[in-house]
Amino acid sequence: MKESSAGTQPGAKVSRVSFDPEAVDDLLSRELRQLSFQQRSVIQEEIHGVRDAAINETPETIQEALREMSHELDNVLPVSEKTAYLHAKSLNASYVTGSDFQLRFLRSTLFDAPHAARKLVGFLDLLLEYYGRVALQRPIRLSDLGKDAMDVLRAGQTMQMLPFRDRSGRRIFTVVGDFGLHYDYDTRVKVYLYMFSAASDDIETQRRGIVFVIWPGPTNDLQLSFPDPKENATGAKIFASAPIRICAMHFCLRDGPVARFIRACLTLMVGKDNWSRIRFDAGEGTEILYKLMGYGIPVDLLPLTDSGNVKTKQLMQWIKIRKAIEVDIEKFGSTTIIECPFKHDVIIRFGKAYTDHPGTIMFRSILERHYEEHYMAASKESKVAVTWKIVEEVQKKGGRFLVWDNRGWWVQINDRAVIRAKVAVSMKDHTKRIQALQNVQSPQCSTYKFERQDLRKRKRYQGGSSDSQCCGHGCDPDGVF
């Protein structure tokens, strides 16, 4: 590992010459002590994913917050602190002054309008510096990155977003391998800004925030050097002005003599605003994975092999989706492509990653609750009524029903009749699983099979239907079985 003198960062009283990891630990402890017991409890609960800090929004609260934020931007902040914002206004940039853009910053600060205004002007300064005037007039796109930044992005070490959320519905950002530190710093900054901007496109992420998993790999073999003061200040500004809220930062390090040095470097890089959100998950690879699982993070999706190699398959799929989304928006002003399912979305696709999705887990729970009612329903009409209940229960939670498009992304099913039919099939599959489990667990005498057949016959005739309703091949998802 390469060491050099540390650049100071706002709020970090660490000498460049006398840098000491213990001094950084003291800073973290002091930061936590300045919080009240209630503040620490709220942060702990949010880090563990058991509290959703998102504000309950109404049209009235949104309008009031936007009004207060506009006042801060136009009348309170000094001119010297909002150069890019004033430049955007001179360009009549409706993108920057529009409510959609400003709401990202309000949600990232839990509707603290003065804080949101400071974040917005800071982020615009960075966009103007690294992308030019075009970034003040429309969202930045992959095509704005240029070849060098695209190469850095494709390498998968600077940042990746996992294709599914954690159990609390938060997007997962990963920084793995050597973190891309061997690439030019300004090029990496362009990637950071794009990733934060892209992540803030969906309202679910704006409200629930993101979680970072920072993991150099199994050996801690990281060629880490301290950034110069300018890079340090830029890094702090990026994290301080991001249009999304950082709920937790997991530093995953193997125990050893260099671990404390690495974690001290990373702590200074992410800025003071995030110190109370940092968790050090130290240990061997398997031990770290179990710790992350305890926070509801889908560890099977982490883009790092046991030997420390960076995986990029998910990243390439994400880049493909982003390109398609950006083409749609440029042509039509909107898109039907869904990059990442929301927490309560029900996804119709097989595979472990899909069955572990929070919305799918919720859906299985709803099926279980309605299983007996559906199973005991004597007629097809009664079963249909139960499946409609399930559809409505998912939709009341804000959930959508999604299917995988062969072009490589999720799309929403809008036809309610199709949705209900898929729910009926899911209930039928669930019933078969329950019955198979009962058959394995039940002591079955020689007459058991005939008794169950007789029960089914009675249920059919009580409902006024017969075996002729279904061919026996599952063609009728609402058949009484």
TrEMBL record:
InterPro entries hit by this protein: DUF6824
DUF6824 domain boundaries: 345-427
Pfam families named in the record: DUF6824
Protein name, per record: DUF6824 domain-containing protein
